[in-house]
Amino acid sequence: MRFGCCAYSYRDLLTKNRMTLFEFIKTCSDMGLDGVELTAYYFPDTQRSTLNEIKRYCFSLGINISGTAVGNNFAQADPDKVKEHIEMVKSWVDHSVILGAPCIRIFAGNIPEGDTEENTFQRVVNALKSVVSYAEERGVTLALENHGGITTTPEQTLRLLNAVKSQWFGWNMDGGNFKGDPYPQFEKVVDRAVNVHAKTHHRNASDQLTEVDYRRVLSMLKKRDYRGYVSIEYEYSDPPVEAIPRFAQSLKKIASAL
């Protein structure tokens, strides 16, 4: 396993212009992380020269771009909006090729008011098939995150994964997004993991924030011979500049002891 960090972890600093994407990359390099996941929201622009410079800067620091991430919604009832999001994901496939990023984190979406889950499911599957086909031709893996909506449960997530058959499509395992006891839920989908987001906490059955047991999670991944990235996606209340380095060291210490 390799360890990285999602730019989303520093979202407040990035959106308030108190940190640039380049400074985020340097911060991760200084922590001794292996990779960075560069969320689409924080790019100054997507001109070829900017993408090239980001790629060169990562190379100069010896840190990999483990992937990119977009905030798409394929569940929308408006077909024009769905088409717009399909084109957006495809554009980020092209950006990822330039960056040398092998993976993109994507979403499915929520059931629109007045619609049914079955209609939404079919709409999302059709959109996923379109973007996965496009990504496969360009050598980029798409990773579907369990992020509420029609990926609220492992069963819903698996249904989407099974409906879109491609080696270039898998699960973005989010450590905090399944409610209740997460570990048996992880077990149902872990074989499909192609990327992992490590959150410090999850919500238990009483909707209370509880620390995730990463000795248990990393052991589960190691048992499946998972060798990809475990990227910190920090959302807890402690300041990220203090909490993220501690969390990174804890994850690496646990992994080295397994």
Characteristics of this structure?
258 residues, alpha/beta, TIM Barrel, eight-stranded parallel beta barrel, 18% strand
Mean pLDDT value: 97
Strand order of the largest sheet: 1-2-3-4-5-6-7-10
Please report which band the strand proportion falls in: under 5%, 5-15%, 15-25%, 25-35%, 35-45% or over 45%: 15-25%
Helical content class: 40-55%
Distance between the termini: 11 Å
pLDDT < 50 runs, ≥5 residues: none
Q: What is the CATH superfamily classification?
A: Divalent-metal-dependent TIM barrel enzymes
Provide the domain count. 1
Which CATH architecture would you pick? Answer: Alpha-Beta Barrel
Radius of gyration: 18 Å
**How is the CATH topology named?**
TIM Barrel
Label the structural class.
Answer: alpha/beta
Tally of DSSP helical segments: 9
Sheet having the most strands: 8 strands, parallel, barrel
Question: Looking at the structure, what is the overall shape?
Answer: globular
Number of DSSP strands?
10
List the secondary-structure elements in sequence, H or E. EHHEHEHEHEHEHEEEHEH
CATH class placement: Alpha Beta
